């Protein structure tokens, strides 16, 4: 089960042609830690696969050298109304910044709370209204997330040493 997820994550994380493809640092459950040129991330794909009318959802926490926190970002399965995306981890809601089919955390305090909630929960969901007004939900399994988060944070610290 984990190999197809990792292969798909590498496809989503593939940067522009000028950069090298990310390397897998660690993988656990449905999550993987990936090393890029300038940052490392813990990432996962949504539980529902992409279809003809719905894209594949993706969630990640990006760690950059010198930053002690991971910025939460998501690729939604559909375009959402701006500023209308709610991340719920366990029972804890977080209002995200959104534009198009992307959403991200609002700053360091929220990022720390998101990571703490991920570590304590088994699942998370992103809920939004599409530009047409219909509600949609992207669901994610958190199995393996703490391991991937720790590996991505450690990976970013090694990038700082190499600079």
Task: Please explain how this structure is put together.
There is one protein chain. The protein is an alpha+beta fold and 163 residues long. It has one domain (2-162): Immunoglobulin-like (Sandwich). Helices cover 26% and strands 39% of the residues. It has three helices and ten strands. The protein has helices spanning 2-13, 108-120, 145-162, and strands at 23-28, 31-35, 40-45, 58-63, 71-75, 80-89, 92-99, 102-104, 123-130, 135-141. The chain has a ten-stranded antiparallel β-sheet with strand order 1-2-3-4-5-8-7-6-9-10, sandwiched between helices. A hairpin with a 7-residue loop joins strand 4 (58-63) and strand 5. Mean pLDDT is 87; it is low at 1-7 and 12-18.
Gross geometry: globular
CATH topology: Immunoglobulin-like
Proportion of strand residues? 35-45%
Residue ranges: pLDDT <50 for 5 or more in a row? 1-7, 12-18
Largest sheet: 10 strands, antiparallel
Structural class of the secondary elements?
alpha+beta
Q: What order do the SSEs take from the amino end to the carboxyl end, as H and E?
A: HEEEEEEEEHEEH
Helix content: 25-40%
Per CATH, the class reads: Mainly Beta
Average pLDDT: 87
In the sheet with the most strands, the strands line up as 1-2-3-4-5-8-7-6-9-10
Alpha plus pi helix count: 3
Distance between the termini: 36 Å
Q: How many domains would you count in the coordinates?
A: 1
* Corresponding CATH architecture: Sandwich
Integer-rounded radius of gyration: 15 Å
Number of strands: 10
């Amino acid at each position: 089960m984990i190999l197809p997820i990792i292969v798909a994550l590498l496809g989503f994380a593939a940067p522009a042609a000028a950069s090298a493809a990310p390397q897998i640092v660690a993988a656990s459950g449905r999550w993987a830690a990936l090393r890029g040129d300038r940052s490392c991330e813990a990432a996962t794909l949504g539980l529902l696969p992409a279809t003809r009318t719905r894209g594949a959802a993706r969630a990640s926490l990006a760690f950059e050298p010198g930053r002690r926190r991971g910025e939460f970002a998501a690729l939604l399965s559909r375009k959402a109304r701006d500023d209308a995306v709610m991340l719920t981890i366990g029972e804890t809601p977080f209002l995200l910044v959104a534009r198009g089919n992307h959403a991200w955390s609002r700053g360091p305090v929220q990022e720390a709370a998101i990571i703490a909630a991920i570590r304590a929960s088994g699942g998370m969901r992103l809920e939004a209204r599409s530009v047409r007004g219909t509600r949609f939900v992207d669901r994610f399994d958190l199995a393996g997330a703490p391991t991937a988060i720790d590996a991505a944070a450690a990976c970013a610290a090694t990038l700082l040493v190499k600079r």
